[in-house]
User: What shape does this take?
Amino acid sequence: MHVLMVSEFFPPITHGGGETSALALAKALAKNGQRVSVLTSRAEGLPEKNVTEGVMVIRTLGTGKTSNSFAGNIKRLGITASIKKELPKLIDELKPDVLHALNITSMPGVAAVAREKGIPAVAHINSPLAFDPKGTLTDNGKERETPYSFGSFVASFLQSESTGRLANPWYLRYNPIAWCVFYRRWTQIRDSFAVFDHFFPISKTMQRWLMKYGVPIEKTTVVPNIVPIADAKQIKTNKIPHLFFDGGYAPLKGLPVVIDALRSISQKYELHAVGEGVNRATMKEQAKNAQVNVVFHGFVSESEHLAFVAKSDIVLFPSLVPEGLGRLVLIAMAAGKPVIASRIGGMTETVVEGRTGLLVEPGNVAAWRTAIRSLLSDAKKRKKLGMAGRERFEREYSAASIVKKVMSGYHQVFS
Assistant: This one.
């Protein structure tokens, strides 16, 4: 089978964990004997075409370079037109059996070309952006329960302090043109659902939302992300427990909640935070004023990221929004590390309360303080939770089991 995947970004160009997981899936499918090609965006210094570990990567799409600014996201609106231009030519050249949209923003373009060419297509559903024009699936700090109309979106947008990774300043929040831009982009994604033959939601949470938008459960296969595994030689514990946070410095990722929770904890610890974001200086000042022991790191490579997880004692995932899955949780489980995560979205599926980690109400500082304190003071409990997490990872989230699920989804398309 020849699978032609489409992703707006692809490693080494990444804008989150989704691209890294996309590469892992492509390589795993190639190792399984499938022919795999990937169409993605041009990147300075990278060849237009190359083959890595059996995967052919073609970089001819045009898009914005960053998702961390409003201007960059405006430029990214051109990705659909670029896919419509480049993908038909590649289909004529490669003659693939199936198209696979690897990320949400590629879906409208892939759907349009699939309809035009009469070729089967599947879509990975790995972000709340598929169901919420703001990309958060929250209203007033709580997880949304029902689909959006334009009116309900505007009401939510007016109350939202964030849109995805970005702040929602007054000149966007009260701007009807911005409302229409956000909503129009999302309706193109939503309307593409009707074209795809099958969907790969990365969690049951994403699967339920597909069903809310009219996708039959029979057209879905839950496929968690394939994640890298830390080197066993690097895995260690520390005399003074190390906490690890990786969500970048966007408020919705929840680091300010953790800093407030640590304010009155007397046990010794070190919190290491990694990522990018314009709010880093603000959070650093918050930690300084609270006299909280935080080491702020910038962007780290995948190998560095895995080393941080391997050398941590507790991994924190305090997101305030319902993440599709929580990739960091799986990486921590694979390394045998206990997790404290928000009780929201996909994390409620990956973390088994009291067995592989602890679940805490998102944004509840007192509850986060209690959970962190309980694991800081009990090394045996940390070890027990971590071991159970590793066993669960090996049983349910291995690359081999995930490839099997993807191949099953492909075969359903042709049957």
Observations:
- The chain has 16 helices and 17 strands.
- The first helix runs from residue 17 to 31.
- The first strand starts at residue 2 and ends at 6.
- The mean pLDDT is 93.
